[in-house]
Specification:
Helices cover about 30% and strands about 25% of the residues. It is an alpha+beta fold. The strands form four sheets. The chain has a five-stranded mixed beta sheet. Strands 4-5-6 form a three-stranded antiparallel beta sheet. Strand 8 and strand 9 form a beta hairpin. Helix 1 packs across helix 5 and helix 3 crosses helix 4. The protein is globular, with a radius of gyration of 19 Å. The protein binds guanosine-5'-diphosphate and manganese (II) ion (2 copies).
């Protein structure tokens, strides 16, 4: 059977401001269908949630000063990252942290790209909750059942090239478990889990781009992944104890 999916951007999204109704803007500019996967760049979710800030009035700690000195960064910026981190995995030459949501990324995902000069943008406080809220509002506006994936662009260990990754989900199970399924030769798969939310994020990110495209929302159509249960992106994060990479970093 031939398989096929569609991915397209939602046109005419304005520059997003604090308090903007993202679900309303999306529904005004595209015809939503049941089972659509609505993929939204965290940048615009954060903007709509008012998560911009400046470095004014931040006093760096001694630790922030040390890390900042090695990285050639503004120590107030380093402090802003540490304030948003549960654990600092690497201080320099890259500032790799685990956020309070369990997402491991550079600089806690704080970004100044696609934000007004002088302002910084931090990740949504609870991206799963943001995704759930947007899916609920789309349901209220259209009576369509959609999945929502919130993305950010992240680097990857071992590979050059950043990709879109999922940092929040609603109405989609972020991992597909292939255990128990058979391969082409009847062998039963034992440990294969597929990170479908990240694959969707990567696909959407191809259309979003990273620059001035103005395409923060992509609809993926043709996959039926909608579920009505509670889901969380946290199911994709390895727990500290079973993460050998993290153990390795701690022993550096
Ligand atoms: P991130 O991956 O979540 O950090 O977001 P990016 O900064 O890479 O932006 C992803 C896409 O959204 C790019 O096409 C940007 O041009 C676009 N974008 C970012 N902010 C806005 C906005 O406020 N309005 C619109 N229309 N597009 C935006
Ligand atoms: Mn980002
Ligand atoms: Mn991006």
């Amino acid at each position: 059977m031939q398989l096929k999916l569609e991915a397209f951007t939602v046109e005419n999204i304005p520059l997003i401001k604090n308090g903007d109704d993202l679900a309303g803007i999306i529904c005004d500019n595209t015809e939503i269908q049941d089972n659509d996967i609505v993929v939204i760049a965290s940048t615009v979710v954060s903007k709509s949630e008012g998560r911009t800030f400046t470095l004014d009035n931040i006093t760096p700690s001694r630790r922030a000063l040390e890390i900042a000195y090695k990285n050639g960064e503004d120590p107030r910026f380093t402090q802003a990252v540490l304030d948003r981190s549960r654990e600092c995995l690497v201080g320099s030459p890259i500032l790799l942290v685990e956020t309070f949501n369990g997402h491991v990324c550079i600089k806690a995902g704080i970004d100044d790209s696609n934000v007004e000069n002088g302002l910084l943008l931090e990740l949504p406080a609870d991206p799963d909750a943001s995704a759930k809220q947007i899916a609920g509002e789309i349901w209220k506006l259209t009576s369509k059942r959609v999945s929502v994936v919130i993305t950010d662009t992240n680097g990857r260990a071992f590979k050059i090239g950043q990709t879109g990754v999922a940092i929040g989900v609603s109405h989609i199970v972020p991992i597909k478990d292939w255990c128990g399924e058979e391969d082409l030769f009847g062998k039963v798969l034992e440990i294969t889990e597929e990170g479908v939310a990240d694959e969707i994020a990567g696909t959407a990110n191809l259309l979003m781009g990273e620059g001035d495209g103005g395409n923060p929302v992509v609809i993926i159509r043709g996959l039926v992944m909608y579920v009505d249960t509670d889901v969380t992106i946290k199911d994709t994060y390895r727990s500290g104890g079973e993460d050998i990479i993290r153990k390795g970093l701690r022993s550096l």
